[in-house]
UniProtKB/TrEMBL annotation:
Pfam families: HTH_1 (PF00126), LysR_substrate (PF03466). One of its GO terms (molecular function) is DNA-binding transcription factor activity. Keywords: DNA-binding, Transcription, Transcription regulation. SUPFAM superfamilies: Periplasmic binding protein-like II (SSF53850), Winged helix' DNA-binding domain (SSF46785). PANTHER family: HTH-TYPE TRANSCRIPTIONAL REGULATOR, TRANSCRIPTIONAL REGULATORY PROTEIN. One of its GO terms (biological process) is DNA-templated transcription. Belongs to the LysR transcriptional regulatory family. This is HTH lysR-type domain-containing protein. InterPro entries: LysR-type_TF_proteobact-type (IPR058163), LysR_HTH_N (IPR000847), LysR_subst-bd (IPR005119), WH-like_DNA-bd_sf (IPR036388), WH_DNA-bd_sf (IPR036390). It comes from Zhongshania aliphaticivorans.
């Protein structure tokens, strides 16, 4: 019975009760709250009905607090402070829903995955200005080089927090004509490799096409993708990228890279900042319906 009563308690009734105690009279409380004195009286009566107890003794000379009212006064004041803290927090969040948000991701991730979500976010929160850092580098979030990082990794750094959105599967792709030329022995089809591997031969190339020369190396996934689309050779790229392009086909290959986690990361100290928290939740909601495309190894 007690629990049911407490659930039915209306905070605004408590607010009126405290105003009478603090101001010393119903009239003074009504003036402070900007309402009619009958409203104050009615709300306090509602609170007493909820609590099944009288909080004030009414007389022609005024209202005085009952022993029950005095005994619960500290609790009522705690409720008031809690409500004020909530209001302060909401107000701080509203003030924080502006300014600049620095986001870093691979260029191809921004172009092929994030742009529609970023557009929708900016339309909903026009006071937050987004800076996009298209970078392959693991920017140090601990020194606020960026606020949010979208990264493909299976080992996020220890000084950040985040959520894994999906696992990117990889495959080797080429245009149909490049594949046909290779199978027929026509032309001089080559491979396209990731520059950051140095002069190392990619495992897929070593195992599946050991005699194929590396024609291009690049530090940009976007450049590698465009080279493949132009028929410049075979390359290992995310399946979600290759499968979404009707000009590309997935070709047989062993030694393909293991799946890589796709993460949304932020600095430990900034994780509760309003604009970062709201952006994180917004983008996670936006990306969730297309996770299947990220993780698929074949065209959907």
């Amino acid at each position: 019975m007690y629990g049911a009563n407490m659930q039915a308690m209306d905070w605004s009734d408590v607010h009126y009760c405290l105003a009478v105690i603090q101001e010393g009279s119903v009239t003074a409380a009504a003036k402070k709250l900007g309402v009619n004195h009958t409203t104050v009286s009615r709300r306090i009566s509602a609170l007493e009905k909820t609590l099944h107890a009288s909080l004030f003794d009414r007389s022609t000379s005024g209202w005085s607090v009952t022993p029950v009212g005095e005994s619960i006064l500290p609790n009522l004041e705690q409720m008031q402070e809690a409500a004020s803290a909530i209001e302060r927090s909401v107000h701080a969040d509203r003030k924080d829903l502006n300014g600049t948000l620095r986001i870093t991701a691979l260029d191809v991730c921004i172009q092929r995955i994030l742009l529609p979500g970023l557009k929708a976010f900016s339309e909903k929160y026009p006071s937050i200005h987004v800076e996009l850092l298209a970078s392959e580098e693991a920017l140090d979030l601990s020194v606020h080089a960026a606020d949010i990082a979208f990264r493909t990794t299976n080992n996020p750094p220890p000084n950040v927090v985040g959520k894994k959105i999906a696992d990117f599967n990889y495959g080797v792709y080429a245009t149909k004509s490049a594949w046909e030329d290779y199978m027929a022995g026509r032309g001089d089809v080559g491979a396209i490799s990731w520059m950051l591997d140095g002069n190392a031969i990619p495992e897929w190339l070593r195992q599946s096409y050991p005699d194929m020369p590396i024609r291009y190396r690049s530090n940009s996934l976007n450049v590698i993708y465009d080279l493949v689309r132009q028929g410049s050779g075979f390359a290992e790229i995310p399946c979600s990228l290759g499968n979404s392009d009707p000009d590309l086909i997935k070709i047989p290959a062993q030694g393909v890279m293991e799946p890589m986690g796709f993460w949304l990361l932020t600095n430990l100290d900034l994780r509760t900042t309003a604009r970062i928290r709201i952006f994180r939740d917004f983008m996670l909601d936006y990306l969730q319906p297309i996770v299947e495309r990220f993780e698929s190894q074949s065209a959907l």
